[in-house]
Amino acid sequence: MKILTSLSIFFLIILLIMPLFSQRETPPEGSQPKDFVLPAVKNFSLDNGFQASLVNYGELPKAVVRIMISAGNINESKENVWLADITMDLLKEGTSSLNAGEIARKAAGMGGTVNTAVGLDQSWIGGEVLSEFTPDLISLLAEILLSPGFPEKEFERLKKDYLRNLNIQKSRPQSLAQEKFLGVLYGDHPYGRIFPSESMISGYTLPQVKNFYEINFGALRAHIYVVGKFNAEKVEKSIRTSFASWKTGEETYVNIPQPQSKRKIYLVKRPDAPQSTIYLGLPVIDPTQEDYFPMLVTNTLLGGYFSSRITSNIREDKGYTYSPRSSITNHFRDAYWVQTADVSTDVTGAAIKEIFYEIDRLQNEAPTQDELEGVQNYMAGVFVLRNSSRTGIVGQLVFMNLHGLNNYLNNYVKNIYEVTPEDVQEMAQKYLKDDEMTIVIVGDQEKVRGQVERFAEIMK
Amino acid sequence: MKRNFQFLNTLDQEPEEQQIVGIQLNNGLQVVMLKNQRTPIVAVDLWYKVGSKDEQPGKSGFAHLFEHMMFEGSQNVGKAEHMKLINDVGGMVNGSTTQDRTNYWEIVPANQLELALWLEADRMQSLHVTRENFDNQRATVKEERRLRIDNQPYMRVLYELKDEIAYSNFAYKHSVIGSMEDLDRATLQDVRDFHDLYYRPNNAVLTLVGDFQMCHAAELIQKYFSPIPAGQSIPPVNLTEPPGKQEIRFNYEDQFAPFPAISVAFKIPERTHPDYYALEILEKILFDGESSRFYSRLVEEDQVALHVFGGQDGKFGPGLFFIFAQLHPQKHFSDLENTILQEFEKIGQDAISKQELVKAQNKIRHDFISQQESVRSLADLLCFYTTLSGNPEQLYREMSRFEKVTVDDLQRVARKYFSATNRSIIEIYPRKES
């Protein structure tokens, strides 16, 4: 079945008239904004359930090919953390007829590389090549996915590489903070365990990897995205020829978590650390909920961009930190909000106080229309920038398909502009509850403890 | 025959899309424009030809600290207002400092080009800084240093020690972020002097790439930038490096490193040297991807390293070609070091296959096209070539220079630079538990 979708958005910019001091020049006003038109998407599927989306975009002679698989860390058991990652990586290490070197050389000969990534809900394999090689890359990716070689020697090497990776991650304060934060929120759910133990990695066997592949990889869980300049006819033919024989496989596994958060502090030891890495947050609503857009705007205004309130306060006003940021991370039917900051050890308590001050201020008083409009303009503008690259377009389509959002791209700008100052205040009250904030601090415990014990109970 | 690029005084008629056009104002500001209407956005990129190489001993980190000050207010723009004005029209903005240059960029919706130009001109014209803002940004930069270097594994070596050990000349020997002591020493008067000397139109290149009319843009640039007076000529910085006489070695204990590691750096010439092209291809052959020589040998075959990366470090002046590798826990440090040095020797002696060369050239072509994807990186490339050679059209000639490199060139260049007397080695060890 072929469906041709054309998406068109009127890109709305509210003209900026900002009153400044009278003796100063005022910034020039913009002229009439132009329409932003999203490129057309051609969708089709194969009989085995394999789905495809092709987008002809841009002028440079290149194309991105990405095959999303609805499997990831969510499919791992408690004893099998990172098994998804190792499985995906091992696919690149050899097929029934090509070894790792041959795969890498083939891709390099097309001017690209084969990359993989594993996420919580989804994983992907793909690459970016010069246009004329797009059909060849598709058939190479199909060979990798459909006829894996699972070479023993490379498996053993990969395990060592994962041990290294684990050690490097655990030597970074940001990873330690994230590990603790997600562990507190999600407990035993796969979203709550981001690191395996060393013995877990050492103990993995090839049959475990093959079993993970057999259960989780199949046409029904796969969706190919091709974005860029390419010969559409040849690309479609390559997709049909390469993937028609893939087994249908299992339906996507669904396991929606029930995250918990209470106002507690968790200190993670990092002796002599010059900074404290702070994670402060709680579960919030996912993109399918009615409040999603107001919440997105609320996050941006509070801590989500450079001119946000928390950044203005703890960076521009106080100089406590270089890169504070709040964000919403979405999973399938789940999400959490978190404010992060790396602050000097001696101002850890002061920084947390200011973060709560800004949350409370937003709960107590709606922002002005002017402040909100600035945030809305920023979000609408970044939306256009995000959609002006091949990988950006792939990302947007994947996001919509994961969350089942049909009119997301069409209505994004409109939905952002419909949010009112009162909505923002309401979102802060409804979802950013002070007494439910989990606070994680990675740093020099001895110097931090006394500064933060007034905010909440410090957990063992 | 090589054609010099002509900077015009004015634009009489609208040029074609994809044509690089340059104008030079009376105050010396060079402007380079390229029209590309695929998305209704414009990138504005302003490079000042000043970086950490221009700093004096005792003032390390100042060029970067100054970059922060450029967001703290100017004659008509309040503290942090520059960011806010751009964000509020849906644009993005940032700045960055390297050893060689400092840049400021905006990406704005096509209808907001004038705002970006007005803002950049305002802070080139005059800074309005206070003691309070200066202290605040100094604190922020110190946090940046802690975040990027002091609280991370291996970063002290990669960001700083590698250069400190390899270079003799202060210009490149010290880091962009600078030391905490030097940051403390900086004064408000330093900020004013720095702006007066370096932040002048005759020391800057402005590029515009995206969806705009060039004649209109040229008028706006004249309107906002031509009233800014030219400054004095900039004192040249001595970047010369004496040739290495013997191998340099250094041991470093890293507080947060989980594994021992090694850094080896060879001195190479400046970016405009003809050997640059062969060195770039050697970088691809040695380091790019899992089919590269170092990955195959160190990680896959001999399994002496857990991880490896390297290449040219991208300076304008005398640079470094370096490798960084983490030791496999079951191997000795000497196994790793010997294998690395053998591979560097081997590439100068054994034949490099034609296929290896072509693969590297394809990869460079791919990367080169990728760099031209976004309006911002294209604007940055135009600034780069204009700053480097005065000719933005070098962008279009660059690929043919890579294609002319032969296998013999690669071996000659490898033998010339990958020698024992030309290298410095840092051994990195995790801190012993007390």
Indicate how many domains the architecture of chain A comprises.
2
pLDDT averaged over residues of chain B:
93
- In the CATH scheme, the class of the largest domain in chain B would be Alpha Beta
Major sheet: arrangement of strands of chain B: 1-2-6-3-5-4
What would the keywords be for this entry?
heterodimer; A: 460 residues; Cytochrome Bc1 Complex, Chain A, domain 1; seven-stranded mixed β-sheet; 16 helices; globular; B: 434 residues; alpha+beta; 2 domains; 11 strands; 43% helix
Would you kindly provide a written description of the structure presented here, covering whatever features stand out?
The complex is a heterodimer of chains A (460) and B (434). With 460 residues, chain A is of the alpha+beta class. Chain A folds into 2 domains: 42-243, Metalloenzyme, LuxS/M16 peptidase-like (Cytochrome Bc1 Complex, Chain A, domain 1, 2-Layer Sandwich); 264-459, Cytochrome Bc1 Complex, Chain A, domain 1, CATH 3.30.830. Helix content of chain A is 42%, strand content 20%. Chain A has a 7-stranded mixed β-sheet, with helices on both faces. In chain A, helix 3 packs parallel to helix 8. The termini of chain A are far apart. Chain B is of the alpha+beta class and 434 residues long. In chain B, 43% of the residues lie in helices and 18% in strands. Chains A and B meet through helix 2, strand 6, helix 4, helix 10 and strand 11 of A and helix 2, strand 5, helix 3, helix 4 and helix 11 of B.
Please give the structural blueprint.
The complex is a heterodimer of chains A (460) and B (434).
Chain A: E1 3-9, E2 36-45, E3 51-56, E4 62-69, H1 83-91, H2 100-109, E5 114-118, E6 123-130, H3 134-146, H4 152-170, H5 173-186, H6 198-203, H7 206-216, E7 222-228, H8 232-243, E8 264-269, E9 275-284, H9 292-304, H10 309-317, E10 325-331, E11 334-344, H11 348-364, H12 369-386, H13 390-403, H14 408-417, H15 421-431, E12 438-443, H16 445-452, E13 457-459
Parallel strand pairs in A: 3-7, 8-12, 8-13
Antiparallel strand pairs in A: 1-2, 2-3, 4-6, 4-7, 5-6, 9-11, 9-12, 10-11
Helix pairs in contact in A: 1-7, 3-8, 9-15, 10-11, 11-15, 11-16, 12-14
Chain B: E1 21-24, E2 30-35, E3 41-48, H1 62-69, H2 81-88, E4 92-97, E5 102-109, H3 113-125, H4 131-150, H5 155-166, H6 170-173, H7 180-185, H8 188-198, E6 204-210, H9 214-225, E7 248-254, E8 261-268, H10 276-287, H11 293-301, E9 305-312, E10 319-327, H12 333-349, H13 354-371, H14 375-389, H15 394-403, H16 407-417, E11 423-430
Parallel strand pairs in B: 2-6, 7-11
Antiparallel strand pairs in B: 1-2, 3-5, 3-6, 4-5, 8-10, 8-11, 9-10
